[in-house]
Amino acid sequence: MQIHWTTVIDIIQEAPYTWTYKLDSPADFTWEEGAHTHLALEGFNSGEKPNKSLVRHMSISTLPGERAIGITTRIKDECSEFKSELRKLTVGDSVALFKTHSNVTLKREDKAINLLSCGVGIATFRPLVLEYLSNASGIDRIHSLSIDSSKNYLFSDSFKSLPEHQLSVQHVDNRHTYYKEVEQLTKDKHALFYVVGGDEFLKENISFLRRQGITDEQITLDKHESRAGVFFV
Questions:
Q1: Which intervals of the chain form a coiled coil (predicted)?
Q2: Which tens digits make up the pLDDT trace of 130-162?
């Protein structure tokens, strides 16, 4: 397993309790839109066995062309050991990255793509939106639907409706409204649905989409193939 050690080059507060850690991109570190990585803090491999409490599976919220690896996450006052240590990081500190992979690259099948997210999960979709705007070939349109009761919407510079590019963005603050909007989206029986959020959110969405006649093949989760199967039962 290759481990890339890199440094924090910037820390940006996106919203209350939400930060983006921008990391220097090593020359041999590559990724695609929708990628995730394992972010490890110093000391995680100092013992005989890796300290898993200092490692977390995180989405990358940037594209390679931005020349920085962005990790966007929410850190509440009461948080895990990992988040507590992450909060202590400053510019210049070292972190490690490994096992980088993308489960949610854009499918260019001449169909509409709907991006369904909850809270900070929308960070996973930011690179997809940027990639679509730079190359829309094979994609009919993109609609982003996010549920966030805080109303502190992330990346508003990227997530904004652009009718001329067939990009539409919608935020709602409750699940009742959210599922009414999802129901409208399922009227296109050929559309693709990408879903990012907690496990219960994923299960709820799969169940709802199935009831509306959407097949499992039309649903993409930010989960490795070996783990995605447990959600489609």
A1: none
A2: 999 999 999 999 999 999 988 889 999 999 999
Given pLDDT bands bounded at 50, 70 and 90, which one contains residue 214?
very high
Residue 11 CB partners (closer than 8 Å, separation 6+): 19, 20, 21, 22, 89, 90, 91
What is the secondary structure of 137-174 as a DSSP string? TTEEEEEEEEE-TT---S-TTTS--BGGGTEEEEEESS
Residues facing residue 75 across a β-bridge: none
Residue type, 182: V
Distance CA 96, CA 39 (A): 6
CA atoms 110, 161, 153, 156: torsion sign:
positive
The residue with greater pLDDT, 27 or 224, is: 27
Question: Which of 197, 201, 196, 206 is closest to 229 using CA atoms?
Answer: 206
User: What is the fold, at CATH topology level, of the domain defined by 4-102?
Assistant: Elongation Factor Tu (Ef-tu); domain 3 (2.40.30)
Q: Tokens standing for 168?
A: 């539409």
C-alpha triplet 33, 20, 84: angle, nearest 5°: 125
Judge whether 197 and 206 are in contact, CB under 8 Å: no
Other CB atoms within 10 Å distance of the CB of residue 18: 19
